[in-house]
From TrEMBL:
Residues 1-23 form the signal peptide. The keyword Membrane applies. Keywords: Membrane, Signal, Transmembrane, Transmembrane helix. The chain crosses the membrane at residues 82-101. It comes from the Bacteria. The keyword Transmembrane helix applies. This is Seryl-tRNA synthetase.
């Protein structure tokens, strides 16, 4: 009986991991609204301004603020792409929970 459970768990793991291993279709991205497109353009222009700055004259706190601003913009751009992604750790935890339930 345990062999069947392990076989089922292994098969389930491969089935769940398969879609993430497949190549993504670039045409499958959700369409962005005009507002989102404007925001992306605004962010990219701000990034270009920051890249062209002479950061050697800035204080340590100002450089830190710029770095934090860039990180926040990067997170916002990633969030605008949409989609739900599961990490390998999350898949393993889900499998363990399923094994315990069954």
């Amino acid at each position: 009986m345990k062999k069947k459970i392990y076989l089922l768990a292994t098969a389930l793991m491969f089935v769940l991991a398969m879609p993430s291993a497949m190549a993504k279709d670039e045409n499958a991205k959700p369409a962005m609204t005009e507002r989102q497109i404007a925001r992306v353009e605004e962010i990219t222009s701000r990034i270009e301004v920051i890249k062209s700055m002479d950061r050697s004259e800035l204080s340590r706190q100002e450089r830190k603020d710029l770095r934090n601003e860039l990180l926040e913009m990067k997170k916002e751009l990633k969030a605008s792409n949409g989609g739900v992604y599961l990490s390998v750790g999350a898949i393993i935890i889900i499998l363990l929970i399923l094994i315990l339930i069954l």
